[in-house]
Amino acid sequence: MKATIGGKLKGRKTRRHKETKLNLVSLMDIFTILVFFLLVNSSDVEVLQADKTITLPESTSTQKPETTTVVRVNGEQLIVGNRMIAKVADIPTNEDQIEPLLNELKYLASRAEPLPEEKAAVGRPVTILGDEEVPYALLKQIMNTCAAADYRDIDLAVTQTSPQDPAAPAAGQ
Predict the structure, then answer these.
(1) How far apart are CA 136 and CA 37, in angstroms?
(2) DSSP annotation string for the chain
(3) Pairing relationship of beta strands 159-160 and 153-156 according to DSSP bridges
(4) Mean pLDDT rounded to a whole number for the chain
(5) 1 pLDDT exceeds 60?
(6) Which of 20, 37, 72, 109 is least crowded, fewest Cβ atoms below 10 Å from its Cβ?
């Protein structure tokens, strides 16, 4: 039997307009794998506020810093949090403490909650980000000022590098 012209047209029309179906099972599998991948590979790295004017010294330390008050110093400025406290050129080198820094740290301590008894002996925590070119005398002044303002739990921020093999010869020798 031959198909009529109307039957042929109807057959073509149904073939052209087939309903397409999206298989969501595969898509869900991909998203499930992606979620597990991101959960496993998310790290607990503490990222301090980036400052392009500060080049941190390198260290092989594996201990992670806590979130604390951050004091940043580069060749030009002394900054606490996001607030510029003083210009490095204006800091007197013959004094043990930096007065504007001391005032700012005391102000921050007055706004914070009181320290518990077990932490009172250690003092408040502070992290110092100092450029590797900053002289030690200035870092010493900053640390003395922090201690005078009851910020005695001092951490110095560094860039973490992989530990070197002690048996391997030192680079550059």
Answers:
(1) 44
(2) -PPPHHHHHHHHHHHHTPPP---HHHHHHHHHHHHHHHHHH------PPP-TT--PPEE---PPPPP-EEEEE-SSEEEETTEEEEEGGGS-TTSSS-HHHHHHHHHHHHHSPPPPHHHHTT--EEEEEE-TTS-HHHHHHHHHHHHHTT--EEEE--EE-PPPPTTSPPTT-
(3) unpaired
(4) 78
(5) no
(6) 20
